[in-house]
Design goal:
The complex is a heterodimer of chains A (131) and B (146). Chain A has 131 residues and is an all-beta fold. Chain A has no helices and 11 strands. Chain A is elongated. Chain B contains 3 helices and 9 strands. In chain B, the strands form 2 sheets. In chain B, strands 1, 2, 5, 6, 7, 8 and 9 form a 7-stranded antiparallel sheet that branches. In chain B, strands 3-4 form a two-stranded antiparallel ribbon. Chain B is α+β, with helices and mostly antiparallel strands. Classes of the chains: A mainly beta (131), B alpha+beta (146). Chains A and B meet through loops of A and strand 2, strand 5 and strand 8 of B.
């Protein structure tokens, strides 16, 4: 899931301004692949362990002394405008994994990486509503 | 979803055709048969008859080793309760009554071993709860001769 130029991004009670894009990626961990004795190919494949990786890239206008804390857990809420004009809300229960800054001739950015959390391990940490 | 269901089906046997005592224990997922050692039990004559019986030449065969077959695979179900049923069906074959349950074990290609008993069923890890509920296992069958 990729949201370019989101309408608004909030992490807990704070608004993250000037966000360029937000990506929500899924990674399988502990993939199961089983073979029978009928032939060479895996006959059962499943991904019982999954990780949701979120990345938020934000333009930084100047000196910025307030970063999210590593390990901080909040709802990341992203308002995504579709081509048709409808707005959908992407909500992810997430923990901050890393905060980095990059500076180039084009300007400065802050890249926040988060990992999605499921309260009971079963519910998808990502919820998309509206639209 | 459709492709998976087409292979195994929700109920009944699918691509995997193995049986034990006429029951489809492992057909919910892929599994493999590994035939164990086939051997005679042979001991030297001097051991069988006592020290000094001869000059150490010769041996005597006492009989066959028990035939063993190992089945390795994964039980696959569409729910927690369905997986529990599959596991209990296999575990029930290890219950000792007046003796071990005996029957014919047939692999996925029609090879049969008569008079076999399921002597050990062991799961190889935790239940995996992904798209399906699944658990790996190893089942040891033995042709108990006495």
């Amino acid at each position: 899931m990729l949201i370019v130029g989101p309408g608004e991004v909030r992490f807990g009670g704070r608004v993250w301004a000037r966000v360029s894009w937000v990506s929500v990626a899924q990674e399988g961990e502990g993939v199961v692949a089983e073979w029978g004795d009928e032939g060479p190919h895996a006959a059962f494949v499943d991904v019982p362990r999954r990780r949701v990786d979120i990345e938020v890239v934000q333009e930084v206008a100047g000196t910025d002394l307030v970063d999210p804390e590593l390990g901080e857990r909040e709802d990341l809420v992203v308002l995504a405008r579709s081509a048709g004009g409808a707005t959908r809300t992407v909500r992810v229960d997430a923990v901050v994994r890393s905060v980095r800054h990059e500076v180039s001739a084009r300007g400065a950015t802050r890249r926040v990486r988060l990992i999605g959390v499921s309260e009971d391990g079963s519910d998808d940490p990502v919820a998309v509503t509206g639209g | 979803m459709g492709g998976f269901e087409a292979v195994w089906g929700v109920a009944g046997k699918g691509a995997w055709m193995s049986e034990f005592r006429g029951n489809d224990l492992f057909g919910s997922g892929p599994h493999r048969f590994i035939a164990g050692e086939r051997a005679l039990v042979v001991i030297p004559l001097w051991v069988a008859s006592g020290v000094g019986f001869d000059d150490g030449e010769g041996s005597v065969a006492l009989g066959n080793r028990e035939v063993t077959v190992t089945v390795q695979g994964v039980l696959v179900a569409s729910s927690e309760s369905a997986l529990r049923t599959l596991r209990e069906d296999v575990e029930a074959e290890t219950v000792y009554g007046v003796g071990p349950l005996r029957g014919t074990l047939e692999d996925n290609h029609g090879r049969e071993w008569a008079g076999m008993s399921l002597v050990r069923y062991q799961e190889t890890g935790a239940v995996r709860r992904g798209r399906r509920w699944s658990v790996g296992y190893e089942a040891l069958f033995r042709q108990i001769t006495s």
